[in-house]
Amino acid sequence: MRVTATGDVASLRAAGAFVATATPDDEGRLEAALTDVHTLVHVGGGLASPDLDRIVADAEVAARAARGAGVRRVISLSVAGASPDATDPLRRAKAAVEEILAALPCPTIVLRLGLVDTPALRDALVTAGLEPVHLGVEVRPVRVADVLELVVAFDRARSRSTEGHLVVAADGPQAMSVAGYLDRVTGSRDGRGRLLGRRLPDAATIQRLVATLSGPWEQTEPHLVDGWAFAQLEPGVPGVSDPSGG
Length: 246
What we know:
About 40% of the residues lie in helices and about 15% in strands.
């Protein structure tokens, strides 16, 4: 497994990954790291991303590097409701990323995920000072461990494909309010967790976070493949003891 990342990469190396330290816009280093790589898993930014324009720009760099290195498959993580016509900028950015990757000559798979439970997301939601209307939004959280299993399953299932673009829906298994989700993963009450030791988002990030929380988080488009059913996986519900969330 090869990974490109910045900052502290000790945990990645400890997990056995070959790590190339590079920024997402370093196309030359990324292409070199992708040499002889069969499948590129493109994560991209998420709800707490400080610069949504970089999500699209970094995807353009990754696509050019993948093409230059001869990557044979790309799996990209997107968000439920990604669309050029979405009301929030994150979903519009993710739709642009999907379009960029779909233009590659190799098979591409887009996983449109529910709310992915990560430490960064927990910190952002707890410290954002969300109003009751936002805490009441219904979401479908997904565990990181289940996302990883889904990526592996689709990579294995499409191992013989030589072309095509597939968009997959992967909502979380249980609908709950944002407050209910935070209660489960932080042990708080009414979605109000402890602030001490958490990373505080800036005002612009909070504004984007609130816009994205408005949804949609349940995917009903008939053309989307049900990822969990296709991969024969049963995802779990994030909880306070779930190690994937911190």
